[in-house]
Structure to design on (725 residues):
């Protein structure tokens, strides 16, 4: 049985993280930004799973952590979308460029 | 009494301070303040002089600064020369203060005028009292400032402004040399004190080349201040100032400061034959050079200005011929008769409102007081026997002859002839003959102006008797008393010199009378025969033009180059730096736009930089 080496997992996670980061920093639509953040989160999950098999002390802990993270992420997305809807109701837009209240 | 000599310069200083602060408020009372305070300093000076007859030199000093091993002191000294100068300066200053009351009547800036006069008198008296070179230098520059302010008193006239600047800059050129000479002496001697400088000169601790060098550098400072060739051309231009100022500063006191400095430093000069020779040659050349220009000038004050330059040349010639007494004696008599001439000229100008002698004439009958007074001054400066100028000029000629300068002696004789000629030319053109201008409204000046002239006329006649070959050289014996370096109190010379000097001055007067009064010789006789020579003299030997095309042009080209350097290189560099900083800050402010995404980018880039640094350095930064 040919095994996939850890470098492949880590490269995948890295690529995924970079795509997520790029999306989070450049996209104008808030929904896309949230989705990009999910990508980054899941890149982290891949790392957790990969190290649970190939780490110094392989055990099930990493996979449990990944499951936790998915659950927490689901909750977080729910909250994020709720905030987004609240903003949309106020500002009638989901364009990130319009949200510059930090400047003031 | 002499321990109170320090108070003498403080009176005029007080006058300056009071008038500069309260002058506007007091208005017409300002002249009285100035007169009162300068009179006080004259009285104290007189008492000090009398006290100096009885007592030895008084000197008081306090430590001013200690730098390393060297100690700089400040204080005052009353020796023979100082005491004499104090009286001359304070007396002429007081008389000029009094005269100005009439001359400047109605000028709304009269209080400013008096405050400047106070400042100048303070500086001049301080200069005279200084016991060391450094203090002398400080007052030397202050005197220059006073002169600058007073020449430029009518600052709304372009010529006055230019003349003030010219006077200041040209004397500064000499001052730089003086400063270098001073520093060299300090380097060699380790002190600015006159006494210590003279002591090490006579002890021979300074090499003779160094003595010559420093003496000549100091002499260049004196050349600038005393209007000697080649730094003379500021003095005639300085006549743009009010006439009382010309009498005080540019005839009697400040321009004599150069002569005074050489006289004070005389032991240093006497130690170097080359330095003495330089002084004598420059003096003799200036005497004849300025006298020849004086022959053709058409402005009453300019004739007097060139005569001042010429007479200062005589003094330098005397000092350079080891005639210390002769130089100081001529300085004294010249102060009186030249101040008298300037005040009388001011009185004429006051009456006819012009300075052009071609527009005067026939004033003898109109100005019954000024005329005779001017005549007294003219006789004195021409060296007519029995007046003061005769004795002092005779002393100079004797000193030159005895010292063996035959050529310089001849130059001096010719200059004396020219002096008599141009002074009487001036006198006949102004007072003799028929009126050539409108003289109907001419009125004699008020008493406040004529009284000072009477005092000066008295001195111009009798001041010579303090040092004559007939009644004993009282001044000379006193001046050189107890100081062998200054030479003898009286120099014995052949008797024919006195006869020759008399003959020459009478000849000059006779020639002027023939040409300008009897008109038996045409005025154009010489100028039409030698037009180029006339033109050369009339244009003052093109000295100003020469300076304009060499020094001024060179300086302006240099300043243009410097300006280009400034604009392109210095300002360019500064603009580059500011542009870089501005750009950086603009970038910074663009980052802070309230966008979470931008902040995220910055944070991520920062992290990336940190990681890269960590990777490159292995974590050991």
């Amino acid at each position: 049985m040919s095994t996939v080496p850890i470098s492949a997992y880590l490269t995948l996670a890295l690529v995924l993280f970079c795509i997520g980061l790029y999306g989070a920093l450049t996209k104008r639509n808030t929904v896309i930004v949230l989705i990009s953040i999910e990508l980054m989160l899941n890149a982290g999950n891949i790392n957790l799973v990969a190290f649970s098999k190939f780490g110094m002390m392989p055990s099930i802990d990493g996979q449990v952590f990944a499951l936790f993270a998915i659950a927490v992420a689901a909750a977080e997305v729910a909250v994020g979308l709720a905030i987004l809807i609240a903003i949309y109701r106020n500002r009638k837009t989901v364009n990130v460029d319009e949200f510059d209240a930090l400047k003031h | 009494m002499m321990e109170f000599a320090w108070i003498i310069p403080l009176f005029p200083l007080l006058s300056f301070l009071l008038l500069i602060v309260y002058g506007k408020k007091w208005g017409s009372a300002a002249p009285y303040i100035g007169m009162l305070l300068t009179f006080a300093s004259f009285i104290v000076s007189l008492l000090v002089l009398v006290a100096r007859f009885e007592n030895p030199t008084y000197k008081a000093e306090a430590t001013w600064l200690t730098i390393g091993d060297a100690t700089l002191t400040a204080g005052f000294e009353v020796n023979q020369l100082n005491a004499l100068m104090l009286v001359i300066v304070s007396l002429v200053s007081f008389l000029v203060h009094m005269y100005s009351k009439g001359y400047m009547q109605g000028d709304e800036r009269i209080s400013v005028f008096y405050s400047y006069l106070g400042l100048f008198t303070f500086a001049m008296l301080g200069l005279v009292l200084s016991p060391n070179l450094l203090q002398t230098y400080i007052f030397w520059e202050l005197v220059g400032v006073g002169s600058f302010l007073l020449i430029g008193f009518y600052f709304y006239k372009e010529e006055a402004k230019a003349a003030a600047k010219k006077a200041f800059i040209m004397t500064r050129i000499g001052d730089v040399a003086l400063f270098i000479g001073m520093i060299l002496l300090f380097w060699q001697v380790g002190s600015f004190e006159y006494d210590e400088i003279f002591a090490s000169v006579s002890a021979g601790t300074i090499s003779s080349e160094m003595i010559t060098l420093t003496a000549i550098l100091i002499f260049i400072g004196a050349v600038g201040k005393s209007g000697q060739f080649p730094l003379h051309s500021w003095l005639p231009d300085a006549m743009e100032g009010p006439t009382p100022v010309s009498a005080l500063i540019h005839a009697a006191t400040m321009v004599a400061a150069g002569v005074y400095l050489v006289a004070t430093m005389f032991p240093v000069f006497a130690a170097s034959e080359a330095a003495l020779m330089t002084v004598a040659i420059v003096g003799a050349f200036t005497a004849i050079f300025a006298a020849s220009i004086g022959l053709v000038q058409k402005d009453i004050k300019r004739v007097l200005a060139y005569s001042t330059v010429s007479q200062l040349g005589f003094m330098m010639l005397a000092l350079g011929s080891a005639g210390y007494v002769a130089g100081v004696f001529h300085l004294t008599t010249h102060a009186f008769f030249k101040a008298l001439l300037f005040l009388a000229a001011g009185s004429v100008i006051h009456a006819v409102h012009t300075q052009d002698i071609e527009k005067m004439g026939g004033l003898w009958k109109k100005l019954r007081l000024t005329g005779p007074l001017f005549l007294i001054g003219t006789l004195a400066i021409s060296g007519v026997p029995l007046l003061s100028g005769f004795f002092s000029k005779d002393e100079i000629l004797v000193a030159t002859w005895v010292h063996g300068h035959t050529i310089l002696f001849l130059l001096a004789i010719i200059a004396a002839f020219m002096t008599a000629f141009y002074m009487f030319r001036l006198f006949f053109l102004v007072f003799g003959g028929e009126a050539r201008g409108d003289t109907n409204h001419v009125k004699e000046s008020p008493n406040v102006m004529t009284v000072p002239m009477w005092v000066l006329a008295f001195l111009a006649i009798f001041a010579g008797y303090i040092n004559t070959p007939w009644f004993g050289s009282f001044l000379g014996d006193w001046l050189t008393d107890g100081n062998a370096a200054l030479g003898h109190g009286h120099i014995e010379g052949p008797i024919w010199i006195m006869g020759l000097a008399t003959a020459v001055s009478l000849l000059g007067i006779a020639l002027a009378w023939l040409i300008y009064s009897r008109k038996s010789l045409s005025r154009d006789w010489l100028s039409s025969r030698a037009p180029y020579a006339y033109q050369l003299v009339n244009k003052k030997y093109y000295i100003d033009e020469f300076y304009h095309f060499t020094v001024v042009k060179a300086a302006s080209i240099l300043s243009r180059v410097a300006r280009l350097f400034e604009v392109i290189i210095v300002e360019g560099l500064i603009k580059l730096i500011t542009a870089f900083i501005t750009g950086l800050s603009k970038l910074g402010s663009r980052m802070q736009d309230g966008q979470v995404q931008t902040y995220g980018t910055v944070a991520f880039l920062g992290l990336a930089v940190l990681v890269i640094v960590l990777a490159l350095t292995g974590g050991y930064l």
About this structure: The interface with chain A takes residues 592-597, 599-601, 604 of chain B (CB under 8 Å).
